[in-house]
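Incident log, support desk, overnight shift.

02:14 A customer reports that sequence design results differ from what the structure should imply. Their input is reproduced verbatim below. On-call engineer (initials T.W.) acknowledged and began investigating.
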């Protein structure tokens, strides 16, 4: 099999291209694609635990901890003890993290359009559906 015919190679190459596009688009806000994913989760439901974020993003706990450390250093989030469970820590958006919601969401929409610009709307829907199917291999 030719390398270019290997699903893993083609997916990795496409993922790298999309990752670089999103990284460049988010750079003016000082946010990485991974940090955007955490912000999006918290914009949807503030105060989640690191474990909840890890499960939602399909990332291991140590990866999420590293992302949260960098986000805390940028004053995007704070970690607060859970008032109902002392063993648990809640991740809370700061005002700075909340203020990024509108401009970053608009940027993400534009980045998605750029990433899919060579596909027609039906192809875009099909691509996303097919990629979702691969999540269940």
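02:41 Re-run completed on a clean worker. Output:
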């Amino acid at each position: 099999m030719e390398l270019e015919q290997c699903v893993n190679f083609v997916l990795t190459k496409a993922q790298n291209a999309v990752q670089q596009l999103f990284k460049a688009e988010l750079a003016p806000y000082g946010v990485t694609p991974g940090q955007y994913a955490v912000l999006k989760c918290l914009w949807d439901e503030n105060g989640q635990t690191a474990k909840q974020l890890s499960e939602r993003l399909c990332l291991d706990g140590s990866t999420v901890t590293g992302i949260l450390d960098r986000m805390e250093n940028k004053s995007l989030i704070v970690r607060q003890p859970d008032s109902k469970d002392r063993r648990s820590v809640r991740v809370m958006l700061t005002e700075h993290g909340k203020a990024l919601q509108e401009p970053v969401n608009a940027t993400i929409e534009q980045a998605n359009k750029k990433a899919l610009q060579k596909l027609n709307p039906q192809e875009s829907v099909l691509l996303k559906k097919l990629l979702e199917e691969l999540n269940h291999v």
